[in-house]
Amino acid sequence: MRDVHLDDEYFRAARPEDGSYDGPMDPRYPIGKFAYDAEVTPDKRKTWIGQIAALPSELNAALAALPPGGLDRPYREGGWTARQVVHHLADSHLNAYTRVRLALTEQNPTIKTYEESEWAKLPDALHADPSSSLSSLDGLHARFSILLEALQPQQFARTAAHPVWGPITIDWLLQMYAWHCRHHVAHIRQVGA
Ligand code: NI
Question: CA angle, 42 as apex, 178 and 88 as ends, to 5°?
Fold first, then answer.
C-alpha cells in the first residue's frame, strides 16, 4: 500500500485534539488522527505554516531530549525507531514540497506515490546519522515556509490528483503536513517519555 500510514491516518475517524476523547491513547496517534478543517481562515493558515516552519527546531529539541540509546529504540512496540522517524520526515516532506510545487505550476497534476514503509527500510533510513536528514529538513522547511507565506489566497485552492486520497488542494496539503510534523515529533517524544 502506498503512503501507507498516511492513508490510514486520513481515512480513519479522527480523534479530536481538544481532549474531548478520554479513551486510552493509541500510541500510533499521540496527537490524534488527521482531520481536515474545512473552515480555513488566513489566521489558521498562518498557524499551520508556522508549524511547518517550526519542524526543524521542534525535531532537534525532541532528539536532544532522547535518553541514551533512544535513537534506535522504537516509539512503540513494532514501530519505527526514532532514527527511522527522522529520516521518514525527510522522505515525506521532500515529497510534500514537490507535490505543492507541482500543484502550483501544473493543472491538477497526478501525484506520484511512494512506498514509505519500504523507504524506511533502505540502508540510509536504518543507519544514517540523523544530522543528514536534519540539515535537509532545515533548508527544505525554510524554503517551504517562504513559499507558503507568499501564496495568494486563491492559490491554496489549486489541486492535485492523488491516486489514493483523490483530489486534494494546497490547503489540504498544508493542513496534512502541518499535522504530520507534530505527529512524528510526538512519536520521538514518546521514546523519551
Ligand atoms: Ni508519516
Answer: 10
DSSP sequence for the chain = -TTHHHHHHHHSPPPPTTS---SPPPTT-TT------SS--HHHHHHHHHHHHHHHHHHHHHHHTPPTTGGGSBSSTTS-BHHHHHHHHHHHHHHHHHHHHHHHHSSSPBPPP--HHHHTTSHHHHHS-HHHHHHHHHHHHHHHHHHHHH--GGGGG-EEEETTTEEEEHHHHHHHHHHHHHHHHHHHHHHH-
Against a cut of 0.85, is the pTM above it? yes
176 Cα: distance to centroid of ligand 1 (angstroms): 10
pLDDT digits (tens, 9 = 90+) for 12-22: 444 445 545 55
Report how far ligand 1's centroid is from the alpha carbon of 57 (Å).
Answer: 18
Q: 89 C-alpha vs ligand 1 centroid, how far in Å?
A: 7
